[in-house]
Amino acid sequence: MNRRKFLSYMGCGCCSFILPSCSTAPITDRKQLKIVSEAKLNTQAAQIYEKIKNKEKMSNDKKTLNEIKEIGKKMEDSISEYFYRENLNDPTTNFDWEYILIDKKKVRNAWCMPGGKIAVYTGILDVTKNTNGLAAVMGHEIAHAVAKHSIERASRTALINTGTQLIDIFSGGKLSQVNRTTGMNTIGLLSQLGIMNPFNRKQESEADYLGMIFSSLSGYDIRETVKIWERMKKFNKGKEPPEFMSTHPSSDNRIKNLNEKMNEVILEYPPIKFT
User: Fold this and answer.
1) Tell me, what's the pLDDT at 271?
2) Distance of CA 219 to CAs 116, 138, 244, Å?
């Protein structure tokens, strides 16, 4: 059974247990399944964010932190203005934006929690190199939050868990028996490799595209985006897992897709000019 059929069966089988809410991602209009409360997820994210701020070592590099905040503010304003001018609902209306710089040289990463809670690690600065590069990374992470990817993932997990319980019931508990015998979460592994990973790669590709749009709207040079992934590829030194095992597209595919969409984004999403 292929992934699409499995998900369709799960959706049909779970309809009487979960009332799904279907919507579309901003700009791309990709269909989304949302059965988890955004407000609840934002509250949980804010609580976790506070714990991270207390636990992690914050960087003393005020100049870079101020640069991060400046980039973030430009994106906040440009994103909201874009949706206002297009007469569309602003997906950031309920965001409470916040930015931190975590002092971890060995971590080349950044993320944005639901509700606009953003963290950048000092290790990624060796990859971003400059303001446009930093904007490209932040635009990508902000895109995850704007497109409500965390809500999708949480909803998907809830749907799969419910479906797994139903299958276990319908199979007379055989799935549980297999898990106990092998010591492995069989359904968890299958869902990760066969369902969740391709789904997450789709989100990553969408965040790449939306991130370029948000960077362009904010007045940054999005040509730096491709250079970032070229540098990241060198940092990884060919140690990337096979794409089907990864939640992210390979660097080569990323670079190819970004190059294909570059001119479209530059032409169709020029910098927002505020009067």
Assistant:
1) 98
2) 20, 14, 35
34, β-bridge pairs: 21
Whether 141 is a known active-site residue: answer yes
The span from the CA of 269 to the CA of 265, in Å, is: 5
Q: How far apart are CA 196 and CA 188, in angstroms?
A: 10
C-alpha span between 122 and 104 (Å, rounded): 6
- Give per-residue burial for 190-218: e unless 16+ CB within 10 Å, then b: ebeeebbbebbbebbbbbbbbbbbbbbbb
Q: Which long-range contacts (CB under 8 A, 24 or more apart) does 69-73 make?
A: 69/99, 71/131, 71/134, 71/135, 71/138, 71/218, 71/220, 72/97, 72/99, 72/118, 72/138, 72/142, 73/97
User: What is this structure's pTM?
Assistant: 0.80
Catalytic residue chosen out of the listed positions 38, 67, 141, 224 = 141
pLDDT in tens, 195-212: 445 458 889 999 999 999
